[in-house]
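Batch manifest, entry 17 of 40.
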Amino acid sequence: MLAAGEDPETYAHQLLAAARRAVSNHVPTPALQIARPTRLRERILAIVGRDDAASWSPRRRALLGTLGLVLTLLVVAVRPLPNDWYPRAERSGSSLAAATVSDAEMSARRAAEPNQKIQNLRAFATLYGYVRYFHPSDAAAEVDWETFAVHGVRQVTGASSRAELRSTLDSLFTPIAPTIQWYETGDPPPAPHRVLPAADTSALNLVAWQHKGLGLGNRGPYEGARLHRQMEQGESSGGPGFGTVLQSVDATPHRGKQVRLRAAVRTDVSGAGNQAQLWLRVDRAGDKQGFFDNMSDRPITTSNWETYQITGTVAEDATRIMLGGFLRGGGTAHFDSFRLQVRDSSGTEWTDVSLENAGFETGAAGESPAGWRGRTDRYAFRTKQSDPAEGQQFLSIAPATSSVSIGAEGLFETRPTAGETITKPLGRGLSAQFPLALYSNDEQTLRPDDAPSPDRLHNTLDAVQMGKLSAADEALRLADVLIAWNVFQHFYPYFEVVDTNWDQVLTRTLQRAEADTSSRDFLRTLRRMLVPLKDGHGRVSHPADSLTAGLPLQFDRVEGNVVVVDTAASAAAQSCARPGDVLTAIDGTPIEEALQEEMRSISGSPQWRTVRALRQLGEGRPGTTARLELRREGQAVACQVARPDGSSTRRRKRRRLQAEPRPDSIDVLPGGTHYVDLTRVGMEALRPRLDTLAQAESVIFDVRGYPEGGNQELLQHLSSETLRSAHFEIPKIIYPDRRKIAGHTGGRWTLPPKSPQLSGEVAFLTDARAISYAESIMGIVEHYDLGTIVGRPTAGANGNVNPFTLPGQYQVYWTGMRVQKHDRSQQHLVGIRPDVRATRTVEGVRAGTDEVLQAALRVLERSP
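Output type: structure tokens
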């Protein structure tokens, strides 16, 4: 089948990839269907016909797959393939793991109709979201939806026909949503079920879902509730809430060390999803995620005191170590004898790190524990004295109240009406109709007389051992995809300004997740899933990704090049690279290719994706070496620089990497202009300086990054009128797929003027490192003209983050609310644009000059 000039090794590589996937999926797959979209594939398709290929029998597919594998082995035996043609493998010391095929190639070869398994999963995913978030029945509200997702994936994947798929979906959903009706797509939908509406409704209440964003039990403004229903404390559309207690310590003295958290825990819980967990998190500089483990794969439900522990690593650039314990859902969790320890290596003794009130002995019984913070709005945190693990007292966490009543008033005025239904196509020629509102009596929402009991389903779900599942289990990976996809499908607030085919993303991500074989592979798949959302807050973290180390170098985009701008005062880094060097390749990969590979897993605006890609550039396993190819004043330079490991060199204190040489956090520059870096100093330190700043002829405020908390107060000293922030808005949702949004609820900051008022000229420095809270501050500066904005556009990502955790310890972050500028113009992706655009030059970097700061000084000099 090879044409003249066709490289047999290329063909062998294509067959090898096909055979590998066929074997990994345990299904013989024809090589031509997943070969690269080259002229070879087109010629073969022309011979056999596209329609014929799509309809081959399993036996014929198996025959071709076997033939391809045999031919591949013969070719390889004669002439081995180049190393870079084999499957993706993370090369030791490499910051990149080159994909076997590119996204474009994958999209091209999968442009045809998804296979039967993926179609089944798509149908289940679609119905899953509709029932979980919008079907009003009591039985649906009581389901453990994470476990249901795993169970459902296992059931639907093998359905070989539309009739079998319909039967499987019916057996899954009818016990909890018996008013669903199935029909063939293209036919008129059936008449609503006979329980809609009830003949006599005078003694009945109407039950329906209302959502203000997506309630996930997080602290924040999001909430979901059903009308006329008692909601267990923490219950919402997203599942059970969390009662968390925490404290933190400075990570700087412990960088590069191992860290261990231990505590005694026991519980009084029952029912699926109600459990206790410890958690340990390492925060890194630049909003990077370090080590994180919250025991989601090993929940605590025992009623006896037992000691549990979490062990991890403190990153070299770590800033804080966060720790604590929490109760998920209902019941009571008890904690005692917290202990945080570090050590230099696995062979040395553990050393205690001081914690405040680690044994809860300080303070009277019945009070909140001193030294610990907790969410007091939904859960109660109290010290007790009966049966401690050690000492005299211990901590108990329980829901603050047992339930809260949602009456006829609901969360907002708009709600579905009696008899209102939704009809939706599910795929494979199957559609479903279901009610958005159901009547209920004093006992339950009304059900058809012949509806099956949900008890059998609950027993089945109870037998699913979620704590033992990992990303190695295909069902968990696929379930995670459909859980996450539905969150965004129904609640992401920015689809109106983001041009993406989210439906296509579901298919592509299911296909990728099906092929993944490890936690790290699947982490990459989830991250790529978020990229089309263009959400700067969008990211996914997992413990598998925490044991990485970056280079002791800072890069920036300067004059179209990737340039070294800081070497972190590291002698090893300085012997290799200097500020002003242009990076041309890393580990043999051209730098633009390397940067694009990083950006493939980063969501947000172009400017924010570049910021994050530059931060991640060169990350790899600790202790490995990166090969850099540089251009220095026109000369090529090649050198190596080590990624820090667990040795003493990694723990050596380094100053913070900076993209530019900044003055002290509060400083007076030559010429008398005052300088304040709001990313390094907060109002507590700034207040004593306000009188001095008020008398200054000119002040520069630096917001090139994330400001310290509370710095919006500074703006009150820059205006004699009351300031308002941009519009923070949460969608009111009663229909799926973001259809017919019922309006928005939210608020704005109100900042009245304060004394003293600054009377001099003011300039603000900013760029794409300014995200979220920074943009709230800069948006006020922009609207009220509180100073001249100098630099580059901000990140274009604002709004409250509403995280959720997927089974398998995948933590997903995303923006849950919409932010619009004061004049109702678009903030998302646009950001705050400077009045005076200023950038750096390679020559300026080499000379150690902050050209953006110099530009601001020139602006102030020209001011009258």
